[in-house]
Amino acid sequence: MQILLAEDDDGVAGALVEVLYDHGHVTRRVTRGRDVLTYHRSSDLLLLDLGLPDVDGLEVLRRLRAVSDLSVLVLTARGDERSVVRGLRLGADDYLVKPVRLTELLARIEAVTRRTAAARAPRTARTVRVGDVEIALDARQVRVDGTEVELTTKEFDVLAVLARRAGTAVSREQVLDEVWGDAYHAVSRSLDVHLTQLRAKLGRPELLTTIRGFGFRLGD
Ligand code: CA
């Protein structure tokens, strides 16, 4: 497997590259967050340290998730609950706190890889249908009754968060976190504006339910 390792500590990186090599993985090691965004395409999995010298790892993860569903395993000294929850909510597949046992790391890499393979098998599942609304998550296209509807980037992002969990209640914090990268940001009001716009553009207000005091749900 081709692994991208974002780690600025030479000692940690050296040990990881060696053990990964011994287990049949080829590792490209980078030291900066921005390099992740340059090299992610040629990798099967990303091992991401959060304390990077240029861009914080969580911000790297947020930016990466906007363009890629690459498997990401966060590997960090930051073990506080808020960081762990943020990391997972931003789309990390797993989160390991340093110092990590290498056998555990290898097992986690295997587990993430297995889950990703299973999730990717039915590619058609990347299109979500709710009533006569069709949301193609990869193509970022939305059709209502067969006609394409133009959405802004943020409107689509909000819709995509709900569509990936269609039929399930999604909390307001989760939408804010996934779209804006912060569950407690002051853009909270802007989310309501985007939802109003979305309802108007889709013309199917009954499909987009507000759950008072919690969040939203797309579909039944
Ligand atoms: Ca570091």
TrEMBL record:
The keyword Phosphoprotein applies. Gene3D superfamilies: 3.40.50.2300, 6.10.250.690, Winged helix-like DNA-binding domain superfamily/Winged helix DNA-binding domain. It comes from the Bacteria. Residues 2-113 form the Response regulatory domain. Keywords: DNA-binding, Phosphoprotein, Transcription, Transcription regulation, Two-component regulatory system. CDD domains: trans_reg_C. This is Response regulator transcription factor. It comes from Streptomyces hyderabadensis.
